Automatic annotation (TrEMBL):
The lineage of its organism: Bacteria, Bacillati, Actinomycetota, Actinomycetes, Geodermatophilales. It holds the Pfam family TetR_N. This is TetR family transcriptional regulator. Residues 10-57 form the HTH tetR-type domain. It comes from Geodermatophilus maliterrae. Keywords: DNA-binding. InterPro entries: Homeodomain-like_sf, HTH-type_TetR-like_transc_reg, HTH_TetR, PsrA_TetR_C, Tet_transcr_reg_TetR-rel_C_sf. The keyword Cytoplasm does not apply. Gene3D superfamilies: Tetracycline Repressor, domain 2.
Length: 208
């Protein structure tokens, strides 16, 4: 467990269960049992209800990832290239996956947009979308051959590949990543992601 307080134990337990079963397959009772919390009212007391707990789990993951990504944007030099921006985007997810609880946290992160749009502000999906827009704005001058819609499409493809990595869909029988695998795994995502962004536009109508 990452925290010994009751809210921390509930968040850790919910994160594991949500990663495997999603919100629909996770009950408050299961969370309480996994957390070792006997007080049946604990979720309501600390998070309001199950929806509040689900949102809190999402925000705990999202806030860290978005903060890391925004820090990269602020710290990059003016001459930074495409690879540096892709690195800044994928590295927080790779770090999550390679960390102790990463296999759960990374899965939770990839499921944010599965929830109804009205939940996106609460669960952090809106913050992820806003961050993606800022990355695309930083990339646009480096990729003048791409129009806005084409760049957004390709950035979604980079994000989708990163999400596939996060849930282990790209492992191909490899052992689970460890903390010292971060740089190597980031590079494996940055190389194809940067190549995709630099490739010629497939539809010249979208480059205006």
């Amino acid at each position: 467990m990452s925290q010994c307080t009751t809210p921390g134990r509930l968040l850790d337990a919910a994160e594991e269960l949500l990663a495997v079963h999603g919100p629909a397959g996770t009950s408050v009772r299961q969370v309480l049992r996994r957390a070792g919390v006997a007080n049946a009212a604990a979720v309501g007391y600390h998070f309001g209800d199950k929806a509040g707990l689900v949102a809190a789990v999402g925000r705990r993951v999202v806030d860290g990832v978005v903060a890391d990504r925004e820090r990269v944007l602020q710290d990059l030099p003016d001459a930074a290239g495409v690879e540096a921006l892709v690195d800044g985007w994928v590295r927080p997810i790779v770090a999550l996956r390679c960390a102790g609880r990463g296999r759960y946290a990374a899965r939770v992160f990839t499921r944010l947009f599965d929830e109804p749009r009205e939940r996106w502000e609460a669960n952090g999906a809106a913050a992820v979308r806003a961050s993606a827009d800022r990355y695309c704005a930083a990339l646009a001058p480096l990729l003048p051959h791409l129009g806005g819609s084409e760049l957004a499409w390709r950035w979604q493809c980079v994000t989708a590949t990163t999400d596939f990595y996060a849930v282990g869909a790209l492992d191909s029988g490899e052992p689970a990543p460890r903390p010292d695998d971060v740089d190597r795994h980031v590079r494996r995502l940055v190389v194809p992601g940067s190549a995709l962004l630099r490739a010629d536009a497939t539809d010249r109508r979208g480059t205006g």
